[in-house]
Amino acid sequence: MNSYEKARKRNIQILTFSNSLMALAFGLFGPFYLIFINQIGGGIENFGIAVGLIVLADSLTSFFVGRYSDKFGRKPFLLLGALASALVVFFYTIIGTVWQLYIIQIFSGIIIAIYETSEHALLADLTKRYERGKEIGKYYLYTGIAEAIALVIGGFLVVKYGFKPIFYIVSIIFVISTIFLFKIKEKVKS
After folding, report:
1. Which pLDDT score, from 0 to 100, does residue 190 have?
2. What pLDDT, on a 0 to 100 scale, did the predictor assign at position 176?
3. Which of 18, 70, 105, 106 has the maximal Cβ count within 10 Å?
4. Is the separation of the CB atoms in 50 and 37 below 8 Å?
5. So what's the pLDDT on residue 34?
6. Of the candidates 125, 107, 110, 138, which has an alpha carbon nearest to the alpha carbon of residue 19?
7. What's the half-sphere exposure (Cβ side, CA atoms, 13 Å) at 147?
8. Per-residue pLDDT at 2
9. Distance between CA 103 and CA 179 in Å, rounded?
10. How far apart are CA 2 and CA 9, in angstroms?
11. CB-based contact 113:77 (threshold 8 Å)
């Protein structure tokens, strides 16, 4: 195996491990989001608006992120998105109104676009064309298992500790997963 192939495989392993941690973190609070919104005074209609704002901000930002990640590389956007995710999750612990939630949702959508667009582009960059489906399938196998485990555990943790401690834990896990992203060597020479 040549040095290019070793570096490529190592980058996929790092990305898979880091994003499995992120999937684990997301799974801890993801399904309890509606309950959280309800606790700060929002009803089901507020949930629809909140999710709609994320999707809109994500959609409007994705094109630009994709364009600039082609120009400047995927790694800077991954790092920015991962660290900003930790910050946004932390901000959920200090909001108290539905309007504050909406503002965070918009920022969250932008951050999702920054992270996921560059994540998908990097994953495509790192996979071999003739094995792309297999490698991407394996990637989503690991990240999906991590999220599934967290979804099961998350309910018990929220009941026992409440939302705020879970959000703090999720923020810390996001920071830890970001540390691993620094090890990716995006410009690999053959």
Report:
1. 40
2. 96
3. 18
4. yes
5. 67
6. 138
7. 15
8. 86
9. 27
10. 11
11. no
Q: Which amino acid is at 32?
A: F
Q: Which amino acid is at 42?
A: G
Check: CB of residue 112 under 8 Å from CB of residue 54.
Answer: yes
CA 99, CA 91: separation in Å to the nearest integer? Answer: 13
Q: Are 129 and 88 in contact (CB under 8 A)?
A: no
What type of residue sits at position 97? Answer: T
pLDDT of residue 164: 84
In 29-178, the DSSP E strands lie at none
State the Cα–Cα distance between residues 146 and 139, nearest whole angstrom. 11
Q: How far is CA 26 from the centre of its chain?
A: 7
CB 135 within 8 A of CB 12: yes
Token match 């990637």: residue?
139
String of DSSP letters for 33-48: HHHHHHHTT--HHHHH
Q: Which residue is associated with the tokens 């608006």?
A: 49
pTM above 0.85, yes or no: yes
**What whole-number distance in Å separates Cα of residue 151 and Cα of residue 28?**
6
pLDDT digits (tens, 9 = 90+) for 94-145: 988 888 989 999 999 999 999 999 999 999 999 998 999 999 999 999 999 9
Rg, the chain, Cα only:
17
Query: Which tokens belong to 130?
Result: 């003739």
All structural domains of the chain: 3-181 (1.20.1250.20)
Cα 98 to Cα 28: distance, rounded to the nearest angstrom: 22
